[in-house]
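Sharing a chain and its predicted structure for anyone who wants a worked example. Both blocks are below, sequence first, tokens second.
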Amino acid sequence: QVQLVESGGGLVQPGGSLRLSCAASGRIASINVMGWYRQAPGKQRELVAVITSGGSANYADSVKGRFTISRDNAKNTASLQMNSLKPEDTAVYYCNAKVRRLFSYIEDDYWGQGTQLTVSS
């Protein structure tokens, strides 16, 4: 199987920065898209940023110019650098990967367990 493990969440003051990391492991042949989603209390999970294996990235309007997603294809990792954090960024952040496993011809969606980000003074 495939596992995604996130790290880097925590408590940060408004205007601060934080970096989230996600590592995928298991019987992985390739990862097409990796991304970050978030879910605030009482709200639906929403896309934050995604990046393809070729390095093309897309961002939610709410984080454009503040967040940067990157990945290391060789290590099957993705990171989210978050700057100028706001209280409304408070949420559980989930890593997502569209993975083709070894000896498989289809892509499956995998999710990490989530990491809490709290932006508060």
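Comments welcome. The mean pLDDT is 97.
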